[in-house]
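job 3f2a | input accepted
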Amino acid sequence: MSSPGLALAVANARYWTGVAPLARAQLRRWEQRARAIGDPALRAIALAKLQSERFNAEVAATLATLAPRPQRARTVEAIVALEVMYDYLDALTEQPAPDPLRSGRQLFMAFTDALGAAPAQTGDYFRHHPSDDDGYLAALSATTSAALAALPAWSAVSEVALRSAERCAEAQVRVHAAPRVGAAQLQEWATAQAEGTGLEWREFMAGAVSSVLAVHALIAAAADIRSTAAQAAAIDSAYLSISALSTMLDSVIDYEQDSVSGEAWYVLHYDSRAALGERIAAVIGDARQQVQTLPRAAHHTITLVGVVAYYTSAPEATQGIAAALTQRVNAELGALMAPTLAVLRAWRRAKRLRRLAMGKRRTTLPTSASVDDSSVTLDQRLTVPRLT
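job 3f2a | predicted structure (388 res):
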């Protein structure tokens, strides 16, 4: 078994030489396709997500470093398309609808269709939506499905991956519907689903809503002919806890800002900050224990550390309610956190400096200059931090 440090070095070499260029090419592909959406509102949503959240797809693609070299291109294609679709659906299901549960489930059929055993059939995903996107969502689903079908162990992994996708879709729909139909339906569903997982309903909900990460890990496993259904189930279980940490820490870091806008939905499910801290620590312990049992355990360990460090390295992590929780979270992972935290803090500083530099450049442009704002915003982004 390799050490996390060695796994980090190997993953970095693979990512920057092979995976990153593939991921960026796929993102350009989907940006071009999104520009062809006829409906201006849906086109704006699709392009905004590709611009502001391209980082999600680039980071998700780091899991493709687990794939054997001949399978990496297909693995990246599937992961990027699935992540772009997830982010797009996340925005679509936030839009007002007369029946948000019905509308959300219809839209998220594209997500679960992509993980079906057979190639996805183009569904009427916008049946309960006032407009449609000229096949953009269907194309994302079909592309994911076709890439997955070509992976050597997809037949062994597909059943678990589909269950994971269904869990993710239902959680997303219920969370987004809660402001209009109430949170009771969310708690009732999560309580029933959490049974046997070792997670309380709140942590299960947090993990389910971000389970696209678990699906990405399963896609990477499908690229390895040696993967089994039992291994897939173990990966899904471990990544349910890692996904829960992503949602929980995101909510803690954004609490001050979300409180002002009235969107601090997750933190408010806990009676006290101390209770929240206890549960975050428990989920970290559970995730750490589970990843150590997986094939390629060192790589999955650095993924866990990278997820945690991404949030605890944020400037907001030293402020308000996040400060004490951040200290505890970092302590839970001990020495594993130090190198990743250092890299992410340096990345965040460099990112701020780039934004400042770009701001100064804009102030020197003649007022009549034609500037492609989308290109400027994308160019000013630093490359993906070297987490995996």
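job 3f2a | Residues 4-34 form the longest helix (31 residues).
job 3f2a | closed
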